[in-house]
Amino acid sequence: MNDLAADAALAAAVAREAGGLLRSIMAAATCPPAELGQRGDEEANALILARLRAARPGDFILSEEAEDDQARCAARRVWIIDPLDGTRDYAD
Length: 92
Known about the structure:
The chain is mainly alpha-helical. The protein has helices spanning 3-27, 33-55, 87-91, and strands at 60-63, 78-81. Helix 1 (3-27) packs antiparallel against helix 2 (33-55). The mean pLDDT is 87.
């Protein structure tokens, strides 16, 4: 498997896992919608960051939900993620 195919497979696996987490959070929701969206964003972000850092420790990650590390600007490889696009719609 070439690097691009391996990255695509990793991205797909991480996305499926994060999606499963988000579905389980929604199914067990006992909090107001705004808190549900925030919780989903935070937990999915943590999962995605952990998986990518473990699999690609030399890569940088730019996440909508995490503090930006400006060192990414000089990095050869950067993953760009938005753990839960449409937070308001998720919470409704």
